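User: two proteins, same treatment. go.

Assistant:
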Amino acid sequence: MKRKSEPEVFTEEGRIKTKNPFRYFFDTHAKDGYVPNRELIHFSTALAGQNLTYNLVANWMFYFCTNVLKINPLHVGIITSVSRIWDGVNDPIVGTLIDRIPPKNGSKLHRYLGKLALIIGVLTVLLFCDPGFNETFLIIWVLVIYILWDMTYSFQDVALWGTLSLISPHSKERTRASQWVTIGASIGAGIVGIMPALMDISSRIGMSEKTLFFICALVFGFGGEAVSMLALKTKERIVHPPQDEKESFWKQLAEIRHNKILVALIFAQTLSGLSITVPWIYFFKYCVSYQIGGTVLNGETAMLIFTIISGLPGSLCMLVATKLMQKMGGPKRALIFAQFTAIGIRLICFFIGFDTLPKFFAVALLMAASSVPTGIMGIVNRSFLCDSIDYMEWKTGKRTEGIVSSMQNFVAKITSALQSLINGLVLSALHFDNTLPGITGQPAEFYKWQWPLFILGPAIGAALYLIPMLLLKYSEKERKEVEDALQKKRDAEAHVNEEKPQEAEVPVK
């Protein structure tokens, strides 16, 4: 006798009501306008794959150029900043183009989530190759491959994160989706975070860093992009309002000035890029070493331990990010609270120091406490960006997923360009020599400034971030009013469409 399936009963949050945890997490059913958990698993896994690729390029390309390709650090700072400025300019163009292309089969963004991923994977592998050229041709090689990589990546990235705003018409549901995909993205970033340990292991077994980076490019770069194609299993649940007229490209791009949420986030994140610091690997590899009995804890291993301790609480807090955001008073207050916390704790850590193993763990634990509010910033920020798209539709009658997502990329790349230029200038000013060994081989001024740069540099960026956010006027009450107004508008449009008489078919003679 065939067993009856469990009836479909939904909770108030729109998910299936069942005592079977396996069915709850992998069920494909949900109320209309809500997202099944299996779909969110596919989406978050896709973001994990994409972030394997992104974090390899974003966090390790600078080091690969200076320490593997042996390009002058100042030159690396210049070429990476110039290329990323172009990347930033390129993103709003990509986003505007995506918004201008009519949806196909009811889908606006899915066309960019398929084969493009494989092209990005191949370019990532080429980016971490050593073609054996002299420095001039190496610079040309890196510039050309990186620009091709980013132009392709921009379409995929805008589509991936833009899907988050289309996945549900409900702001709370989008925040939940943001929570899932940010956890996925963080897992991808966390996997790439084992690079210092892999560098330590490879040096012990006699593998060159050139070989290690090529293998990682294959696994993290090409493999990660292949996994990102799971995003094709998502669904766009918001119908785009019809456009009465085709605006010019520049007029459409200029309309972001009406989006006060987006404008505030753009200025806040750009200013945060003015942190005077250098990548962590330079501090840990060249300045950190602890004697534990007869064993030496080197900088690469210390960096991995520090990353795990300081980042674990923030990673765990992502599981309850939506509740934390509500307790803090909404996305805006959550972002402000995180920055104040980061500034205060980094100041305390500076006076503790880092020269002994107990101080190392004390600083790591304090940074772990700071990671609780800062760890949910990615989720809160993306939720806020989705709100900005709703705000734009409420204000102008147009939805701009492409432009908003691309502007987020624009800011990230301009910030990265600023940071790369600062990295190159700082390392050059400190007379860093990539041919010299660490711990005692670098000039005295290099060691003198590494701790202040490592611990206080990001605090400067956090303080600058606060300025636009404190000036932004957007309350939780206004957020709710915008969402309710849009829901009434969509309900009215749906009612009108239902009442339209069907055109009579004309018989063919």
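Protein 2:
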Amino acid sequence: MEHAAACQRASRTLMASVIPTSAAMAGGFAAAAVLAEEMTGSELLAALAAAMMQVGSVVTTVPLARRMARVGRRRGLVAGWAIGAAGAGLAFLAAVADFYPLLLAGIMGIGAGNAANLAARFASADLALDHRRARAIGMLVWATTFGAALGPTAALGPASAAARSLGIPELSGPYLLGVILFAAGLAATHVWLRPDPLEMLGTMGREAARPASPVVVGRRIATVPAARLAVIAMLMGQAVMVGVMTMTPLHMENGDHRLQVIGWVISVHVLGMYAFSPIVGWLVDRFGPHLMIGAGGVILCIGAETAAHNSAEDSAGMFAGLLLIGLGWSFGLIAGSALLISAFPAAQRVEVQGGADFFMTTGGAVAGLSAGAAMEAVGYHSFSHWAGLAALLLVAAAIAAWHTARQERTTEIAHRGAR
């Protein structure tokens, strides 16, 4: 009874926390490329600024995981969101001062907040029953819908308008709002995430006593087939999603769309990422992660191809394509996360989860950093087309892993029968 109550309390607290922090992250991302291009006049430097959010996630994911293993989920999440608030403050100063290098540092800080958002999904599943893990993750991801979908619209709409009325650059508004939202999220977790989920499991501090190096964590993942597929699912989904989403605002701006319309498209994309996640979680628990990972690859491909065949002046195809890309990402993230949790004992999970998120965010960072150069070289349409084809690799990996797992089960049953 006490375990069930603690599970529900942790779930409610984390859901309340990720709503404002996801809004801060999504709003900051939506403004990053446009603000950077206004500062520099370069699409390449604009893409670099947006990609720094992924870079920030990459460099903080493993340290945050180690901190959580040592002192618990609560203090680790609070630290990540505090860095996010500081990053939003730096980005605000960069917009006011029109200083591009400071913007890069600020977006990196916001990326640390994003790393904490990603870790929260594992925290939500710490106390969940085995057959409900994907649904627990799905509910946490779903909670971010309210913040992440409204974040770009609020950032590029009311927050920008408020900044303009105050006589400061309109794109400083999203980052001032971000400071407030990150602070609200970390305060909720600091006050209400008690007892700590890892303390309830009895694993807090056990991994930290003998912390594994990134090489050891990578080897653990590489030697477990289920973990390999889980990381591939999360990495490919992140890379396709970040690559196409990073370049979409610039593509639409080339078509003379207003900032508000661009914000709506990103909001619809974020709805695809988060709004259907309870259903996705149920499907994963019901039909298994292998099938749902394959489905995610198909949806990612269709979404990227839809965006690829849409002109800069037409927004309808962008709404549809970005919605599907978000949904495909949701399938990969939730199914991959649930599969990863089941692949390791509780005492090894936190650092492995940090390692998996490191690989996932690295894939997103590489995609984001290369997106600007790819767009300048081949254009948005070809870039999105190749991203869609890359998503089909995820389908092949899921089919191969499912076939291997089926053979292993058949062999195990045969051995049992022989005994």
